[in-house]
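ok here's the first one, seq then struct tokens
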Amino acid sequence: MNGLQPPQVTKKGINIPQNIKLYSRNSHKHIRLRMSGVDGKGLRTDSDAQLVLESVGFGGQVQIKSSSGKRYLCVAGHGAFIVKFFKNQSQAHIDHCIFIQGHYNGYTVYRTKVHKDWYLGIKNDGRLKSAKKTSITQRATHFIEI
């Protein structure tokens, strides 16, 4: 049977998960969602660097979660990126855990849904950059989906 299956279609759009690794242009490593937090120091073989990008609405709305599906990348109110644990997927559909996926100069960028000028960013040393200090033109916000 071809086409979309009913569980993939939601009221907000089409829900399609995609297994990816996010390679940072700045740190030259992969984003990891770990029990202790998130960073950009992952190697290609690191299991915590295996992520799931899942569409949750129209207009490029996505969630970034661990391959286990219980850890989600979210942004706190002060601009720090955090990992939140949710027992089921419906709990995770809060705006602080939703990003708008876009493109800039051939790279993928992730803008937070709650703040239109905050982006996911990784510093040269693999630490997260505060979302409040990012812009779409910075290398820190540029990623390649692998």
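and now the second one, same deal
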Amino acid sequence: MNREAPMSDLTYKSNGLTYLGATPFSGVAYSENEMGVREEETSYVDGLRCGLSREWNDDGTLVKEAMYSWDVFHGAARTWHDNGQLERDGEYEYGIALHEKLWDEQGNLLSDYVLSKDDGQYEFLEKLRQIYRGGKNVGDDESEPAQT
């Protein structure tokens, strides 16, 4: 996935995919400031965010980084306040927060969320895990029979 394209060359369509021309984009999309310094880069596979996404402020300091799969948070995601203090740190699976902490600009912990088995999102996550086991829809691989 060595292909790169400016974000301004990409088009987001109503089907939920991001295109370069007539083709769903695979590669790294980026934006730069007037000085040619990267402000943002996001990995795409077949038109969906998949992999690392990062944003920097004007002085080049990282302010956001997140992992995506199928266009939702999947893995670590972090944001930082302008002063460099960590603002949000979480781990996600299929877009559902497994755990997430929030801090104010002085580093004081504001919230500390952990997904519990009693949470309605937990049951939904379990269903997603069954559907997308191994990164594929169950039944996509002929060697693995679809569950009924």
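notes on #2: Confidence is low (pLDDT under 50) at residues 138-148. The helical segments are 120-131.
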